[in-house]
Amino acid sequence: MTTLASMRNDADIAEVRQRVQSAGSSFYWAMRFVSRAKSDALFAIYAFCREVDDIADGDAAPEDKRAALAEWRGRIARLYESGEADVSVARALVPAIQRFNLLRADFEAVIAGMEMDADGPMIAPPLATLDLYCDRVASAVGRLCVCVFGDSGPNGVAVAYHLGRALQLTNIMRDVVEDATIDRLYLPAELLAARGVLVTTPRDVLRHPHICKVIGDVGLMATQAFVDAEKALTKCDPRAMRPAVVMMRVYRRTLERLRADGWRLRPPAKGLHKMVLRAEKLALAFYYGLV
After folding, report:
1. Which CATH number fits domain 121-291: 3.20.10.10, 3.40.50.10540, 1.10.600.10, 3.40.50.300?
2. Which end of the chain is more exposed for a tag (fewer CB within 10 A), N or C?
3. Global pTM value
């Protein structure tokens, strides 16, 4: 029997799926190899992450960003306390939370990570702060995802921990030029100091002759995180964790490309180059999703 509530939920899920697909993320293709119930849940998680990330990256004043993120914190609280949801993304999360036992603490960790960005531009954080940031904005998302994949035990959580860091560090290296244009620099202070790079402004740091060596040092951190994630994956259900393997292979290819390019600074891909990279991601997703 089709009810008004189920029709509304279907509409919310359809809206969320469309938003994720329109974003062009490799996440979309990795999620194509799971059941409809799981993909609906994963798309809802991604849409939530997109919502709070857009707040943190927006042009609003820090206090307005804080208020908008606090609104989402309240929204998550209401989902767990009463099941109340007032926007499509929150409504799409309701069945995901109920069916896959997603933890409130992980949603709140993601919001806390976005608050770190919203408070002001992050510039050369200490390694401990960067690790906390990676845990909140990436590993926490992984912890939500492995619950949906169906392997949320200690080994699945280990995958989330290591793979989240590997993916986030790869993003940091890939986006270092783009981040500098908005006065952000996620390269850790200790690695910059070890290479004699004086932290002034992000754009000045990127002009330092040793900046590629610093990025290479972050690359070593990401490489080890990928190795640790792969070890953890061997202890997991391979079928359940197939989407994690797809994401790992896609991002590992990005890391390999950065290494082959000598860790040189590059602006964001555009035009034909962007289309080629997207096609490569699609090919990798299908290959590792089907093997």
Report:
1. 1.10.600.10
2. N
3. 0.88
